[in-house]
């Protein structure tokens, strides 16, 4: 399996097809997480992401290895952005390609769920009126 | 002992790195206890993990000055 795992400033979703297409893959599945303008009825202006980069990469490698054991994947990608991100900007991208759709659909769900649970990355929300808060996890 | 801090842990301590010569912890559990004693705000977090050499560490994992130690408050990527 070929893989691409990165912590980067800016995610470019326009190149994802090229990143995941493979002669043996009949299915490609991608999840992109973006900045939403509202959380718990409060207007969000932007998010800030910080990573413990060296460890985050290692944890993402472990998740990718677990996915490749469980499903038959040809290509896999996991990218997370860091820094200030505005509403609608992409902040996380995971995807996989496989011969048939079941493998890449299931792997994609596992990749994002496990990333959110394990990878040492933190987000701070910035609201109207200069309020800011480090986010504690919620679904 | 030098400890890396991220997210809300940075705000609690007021620095990116905590250098605490008075910490005598020999394992992760003792480190968490010393941290909470000095900074009680850590007790209010929904979870408090410690990474040793870029891996999540169990409470009984021994630590020394040679290890890279980081406090991992609740993660919120994605």
Automatic annotation (TrEMBL), chain A:
Family of this protein: Belongs to the MoaE family.
One family name in Pfam for this protein: MoaE
Pathway involvement of the protein, from the record: Cofactor biosynthesis; molybdopterin biosynthesis
EC number: 2.8.1.12
Catalysed reactions, semicolon-separated: 2 [molybdopterin-synthase sulfur-carrier protein]-C-terminal-Gly-aminoethanethioate + cyclic pyranopterin phosphate + H2O = molybdopterin + 2 [molybdopterin-synthase sulfur-carrier protein]-C-terminal Gly-Gly + 2 H(+)
Name of the protein described by the UniProt record: Molybdopterin synthase catalytic subunit
The organism of origin for this protein: Zunongwangia mangrovi
GO biological-process terms attached to the record: Mo-molybdopterin cofactor biosynthetic process
Subunit structure comment from the entry: Heterotetramer of 2 MoaD subunits and 2 MoaE subunits. Also stable as homodimer. The enzyme changes between these two forms during catalysis.
Entry keyword annotation includes Transport: no
Classification via InterPro entries: MoaE_sf, Mopterin_biosynth_MoaE
Molecular function GO labels: molybdopterin synthase activity
The entry's keywords: Molybdenum cofactor biosynthesis
Automatic annotation (TrEMBL), chain B:
Pfam families: ThiS
Superkingdom of source: Bacteria
Transmembrane segments: none
Coiled-coil regions listed: none
Database matches in CDD domains: Ubl_MoaD
Any one Gene Ontology cellular component term annotated for this protein: molybdopterin adenylyltransferase complex
SUPFAM superfamilies named among the record's database cross-references: MoaD/ThiS (SSF54285)
Record GO terms (molecular function): nucleotide binding
GO BP terms: Mo-molybdopterin cofactor biosynthetic process
Keyword hit for Zinc: no
Swiss-Prot/TrEMBL keywords: Nucleotide-binding
InterPro entries: Beta-grasp_dom_sf, MOCS2A, Mopterin_synth/thiamin_S_b, ThiS/MoaD-like
PANTHER family cross-referenced by the UniProt entry: MOLYBDOPTERIN SYNTHASE SULFUR CARRIER SUBUNIT (PTHR33359)
Family: Belongs to the MoaD family.
Official protein name in the record: Molybdopterin synthase sulfur carrier subunit
Organism of derivation: Zunongwangia mangrovi
